[in-house]
Amino acid sequence: MIEKLHDPASGDDAVGYTPPARRRNPGGWFARAAETIARLVYPPACPACRAEIAEPGGLCPACWRDTIFINPPACSRCGAPMAFGPAEGLVCDACEHAPPAWGRGVGAVVYDGAARRLVLGLKHGDRLDVAPLAARWMLAAQGGAGASLVRAADVIAPAPLHWKRMLKRKYNQSGEIARELASISGKDAALALDLLERTRSTPSQEGRNRRERRENVAGAFAVSRRWRGRLAGRRVLLIDDVLTTGATLSGCAEACRAAGAADVNVLTFARVAREERPA
Ligand SMILES: [Zn+2]
Ligand SMILES: [Zn+2]
User: Fold this and answer.
1) What's the 55 CA to ligand 1 centre distance in angstroms?
2) Which end of the chain is less packed: N or C, by CB atoms within 10 Å?
3) Ligand 2 mean position to 249 CA, how many Å?
4) Does domain 65-271 have CATH number 3.90.1720?
5) How do residues 143-185 score in pLDDT, each as one tens digit?
């Protein structure tokens, strides 16, 4: 089920997430004065459109309205929003016919509108301020299902970039989200930014269908040397910014399973909505 978020001004907490209470006196008057000056010089901006906002950490009202949160019912494997069905245990047609290589999958928002701008900003625009926001929404996703996946994980790892792309971009956007997820959840010890690596550079997945995407990334992922022999019996949670057909995450999950992982789940910020074809 997909649902446009209500304007936050209405008081609705549509994602079911209550941020920690703001600390009243984080560092005395000096810190408060420094914060006030910083806000005057750099007023907080909406991470999706750069409009000025009153409080940092959220979106402007127009971008809130332009964000589609994925609520139950959704496919329990790939996180795709479903029109109807029970809140738990649903499997979409695509996953029924070609199950992904992971177990459970949760996504926070539909890859459209403001969410698309957030992803592109994080991926190509050095907008690292998107990562904490994405992490909070992912934890709140599907009535806290995202947070359950994080809690249950022994190892939290991002989908990797090829080192050439990493050199160009300077950071892995999924790694930044994974870092925030682990930090907010007190699971820093589970964070494994270097768990997976791309063994070869793959052309962009854009413009390819499901089968072509799978072929494009087949055998492109491996557990890094540092982690070999350390995954046996562990529960891995893979983090990515966007899930389209799941080809990349399936490749990553296969590599983890081949290395002995007991369980592999995925948590993504955005999910590309697709037309459900009748079976
Ligand atoms: Zn905005
Ligand atoms: Zn599915």
Assistant:
1) 12
2) C
3) 13
4) no
5) 999 999 999 999 999 999 988 888 888 899 999 999 999 999 9
